[in-house]
Amino acid sequence: MKITLIQIGKTEEKYLLEGIDKFEKRLKHYINFSSITIPALKNTKNMSVTEQKKKEGELLLKLIHNSDHLILLDEQGKEFGSSAFSAYLNNHMNKAVQHLVFVIGGPYGFDSRVYDRANEKISLSKMTFSHQMVRLFFTEQLYRSFTILKGEPYHHE
């Protein structure tokens, strides 16, 4: 199985970049993992929120293949604890899903066409975090999930 994380807009804070890089490097020991950054839209002052979501959605959907299992990181999605999330990933591996694609949307969420294409939605929390922080939290949780599956001593319950 391969896992890809797609995000809109680059991460700028150095401390977040260092953390994301740390967990992405660790993940490569467990799974074929990659991340793709779609550049933030330019000249959005004259665009409505709907127009912004539509343009972001077009860019995003160009990267998705029919066979991809698309999971949106969305505040309305299903929540998991760390152990349950690792079981969720394991379930997808057991089903022989070839490619899980997780997406962190732009500041206003996703266009309706992206929601229509998505296979699932998950939420990291009921709290709101910056999109840049979500990238770190998500890569850490992916790493944590694989250490749980391997019985390694990273996660404590």
TrEMBL record:
The keyword Transferase applies. Its main location: cytoplasm. It holds the Pfam family SPOUT_MTase. PANTHER family: METHYLTRANSFERASE (PTHR33603), RIBOSOMAL RNA LARGE SUBUNIT METHYLTRANSFERASE H (PTHR33603:SF1). GO terms for molecular function: rRNA (pseudouridine-N3-)-methyltransferase activity. It is found in: Cytoplasm. Its EC number is 2.1.1.177. This is Ribosomal RNA large subunit methyltransferase H. Homodimer.
